[in-house]
Amino acid sequence: MADGSKMGRPPIGGEIDAVVVGAGFGGMYMLVKLRALGFSVQGFEAGHDVGGTWYWNRYPGARCDVPSLFYSYTWSEELQKAWRWTEKYAAQPEILRYANHVADRFDLRPLIAFETRVVAAQFDETADRWRVTTDRGDELLARWLIMATGCLSTPRKPPISGVDSFQGPTYHTGAWPHEGVDFSGMRIGVIGTGSSGIQAIPQFAKQAEHVTVFQRTANYSVPANNTPLTEKDIEDFWKMYPAYIAMVKGPGMGFGGNPANALAATPQERRQRFEEYWGVGGAGFLAAWGGIITDIDINTEAADFVRGKIGETVMDQKTAESLKPNDHPIGTKRICVDIDYFQTYNRPNVRLVNLKETPIAEVTPTGVRTTDETFAFDALVFATGFDAMTGTLLAIDIQGAGGAKLKDAWAEGPKAYLGLAVAGFPNLFTITGPGSPSVLSNMINSIEQHVEWIVGCLDHMRGQRLTRIAADPDAQEAWVAHVRRVADKTLFPRAASWYMGANIPGKPRVFMPYIGSGYRQKCETVAAAGYEGFALTGAALTRATEDVHAP
Ligand SMILES: Cc1cc2nc3c(=O)[nH]c(=O)nc-3n(C[C@H](O)[C@H](O)[C@H](O)COP(=O)(O)OP(=O)(O)OC[C@H]3O[C@@H](n4cnc5c(N)ncnc54)[C@H](O)[C@@H]3O)c2cc1C
Asked: Are the beta carbons of 116 and 97 closer than 8 angstroms?
């Protein structure tokens, strides 16, 4: 495997067709496609190699929660056939090896400047080009700017008093040291019990002398029932592959879920099906019955079922009560998938602190002080998630037409047309941007759909000798309103979730992903209608022609 590091390289400049920011699964596929179509392209990646999420999130226990066979690119059947996943839910090192395999196989590293963060991008209206600058002094002019910066790539620490005062080592699950961490013999504090915390805590507990878990929100979690993949699993996968692809390329998700009508079933039938889905394990539990995410009665039954499982698993009933989620409907915060999470609280070296009862007053140089107790730790772990969906984009100083700043345009929450483009910011595309299914979908599928749509659009622009595509503000408003209306028909807005921006103080409360059905179809219809809702122009070319013919 080649090392992507380019320390000491000279600054990159000049004029090219496209800049791609980020070298996770989104950026890598975008580079493959653009190069294949003969676009000149430069990738930038803050990390020192490819992988994105799987490069940064190296905490013990990190895994995908979409089964590995489906958490793979579908755009190359040869690639699919060449790669052999070993477990139903692959662990982070295996997914990172897969990302590296893709980079090697398609020779992507020469297209990417690593350890380079894009810090600013300004749209030059006279040239219809983005001026892109990086923290290493690069300055490029690019016709197209593609943000493959990820929905979950800006780790956040909670705004707790003294959060940076702890004098021992601190870690964030989203930026885990590459060399790993040995907690043997240590007393550690873990703040946060979302997906990452739930995956990591059982692993920490096996190593550390003592683990104290600080929980603000109890979350629903379903066992992964992870297993090694057998030859038969692989054979079965290939048998159903054509149907799977047809489904992936179909109109797209939506939260109808299983059409099975829960209301027509008896309570025993409902429970039996919950048991079946629990036995299979994974996030598919939410599809046990239609309506779990739209009907509060069915949802409550599903939630009660999970609470019951927690009560059966955790021996200490006070701890069990604290672990039972009770402040949001199931599925309205990201459902977690775990390996022995609740069982971990039966270990003598693990203790739960319920912050709803005794909030953290401050982080101190030696540990954590809650409203009624002081804890001393050798190390602190923040499993406190990300400034999701918008944080990474807004960290870049993006200035569109007329110098308008993205951070002002999104001051009241992100607005984007189809989650692909932002009015006022021509020639800029966001892969899995806000207003698209993104984090509510199998993200590899969503990434592929966006990459293919964007590349199709750029090919069209080039074919027509057009140099500017700009989302129409009215089309954008209509889409944003539609995204909100669809979300309002579900239970999602009832949760103070990161989908709603609720984990970041001051962040506008807007439901960011798109949860409706027919998304892919909608994007295809827009393209087929000559990019309906976009204005396509060839200003620079027209001007160049005028200049040539000027007397
Ligand atoms: C722990 C964890 C588990 C997950 N599990 C699943 C799962 O099971 N199924 C699923 O569908 N999704 C999962 N996800 C979501 C996951 O983020 C996506 O599946 C996918 O990996 C995103 O790929 P991406 O290329 O869009 O973004 P990322 O993988 O986040 O890559 C973005 C890259 O852009 C770089 N970058 C950002 N800003 C800049 C800048 N200014 N300059 C240069 N580089 C920049 C970052 O360094 C990063 O490497 C998980 C996420 C996490 C955090």
From this structure: no
